[in-house]
Amino acid sequence: MEWWLIISLLFGGMVFLLLTNLPIAFAFLVVNMIAAYFFLGGIPGLVGVVTGAFTSITSFTLLPVPFFILMGELIFHSGLGLNAINVLDKWLGNLRGRLSLLAVIMGVIIGALSGSTIATCALLGTILLPQMLEKGYSKSMSLGPLMGVGTVDALIPPNALTVVLASLANIDVGQLLMAGIPAGIIMSALYFIYIVLWLRIKPEEAPMYIVPKVPLKEKLRVTLRDLIPLGFIIFMVIGLIFLGVATPTESAAAGTFGAFVLAILYRRLNWEIIKKSVYSTVKVTVMIFMIVIVSTTYGEILAFTGAAAGMTNFIINLSIAPIIILIGMLVVVLIMGCFMETVAIMMITIPIYMPVVNAFGFNKIWFGVMMLIALETGLITPPFGVTLFVMKGVAPPEVTMGDIWKAVTPYVIVDILCIAIVLVWPAVATIVPNLMGMVH
Hints:
Helices cover 79% and strands 0% of the residues. By secondary structure, the chain is an all-alpha fold.
């Protein structure tokens, strides 16, 4: 059977099942089982799928996933992230758009502590949105930064999505986790620049208001008490990986242990918080591991049938510059993000994209960083980005989906600009992994 027909059948079957509202993992599982039966030799093929399922999740590279999720859940449910927001609020003076800027700063810090885009959006939306609307901020200047900054979470460690992408794409987990940091800083800076410039043009969208002056002594006190300890958790994750002292799994375990200790020291840990955190961790981890199982099988079917090789040969023989093909691959991810969830996109594209990336000799870490930005941009891309619905859930009733789409659009454009920056200057993605090599 021709490679394009095999891919069309697999892809068409998955899209059809997803449209029936069948959960992603089960939709892929059904297609994989049918494909394994017909393409991998009947019953022996199905036995191979079951055997491969155990092999795919007994990988050391996936161990950071439950640790990162548990760490984020503990910080979220114990309210430690709220402490950091209060500290930075005290340091920001009488600035126009101070709450929008605070949202960006806090999104970066909470992202470095939790690694969950959804949790960051929910936390910031619950805390800052009512305050922003009360102070007279426009809906765009209130909603936009709260949703946009969630994209940075994929680039600042820890992030479970990064670990899964690295595992599926056969990229070094530690290097990919660290590679996104410069791009995350650039993206945050672009958000800052957009907010400041837009408020120069339309200052009425973020009226100035009187901010009570906080003595320097009080600022230093709350910083030492509430912010510096969280900084140690960030160091336990990022610093230990960078210095080569610990593997991503070990640093994830250290960060989780640090979150437990901090919650105990702040007297925020109780059985209710532990139950909520563990339940959420198990739920999300099972979902991710199911995704890894079915995605691995999907990739094996593509490889065994020759569909992956056929598509790769077709693409590399096109009389088109490789960089144009790479841009086209990222554009496909961005378009899919308008309608599909991140995990579904990753499962469909990675087994097809990576042979092409390898054939052209592209740096896998460079591609991985751009892929992460494109995948996370899908979470905020109208009309069906998941973060948009999270924001609708925490926003007041008068905020419509139209308001949310309008507010988030400039941040989608900034994200695309960030992809372009990484594309033009690959050093943005490779500088930290190269430094890690020098340190080690």
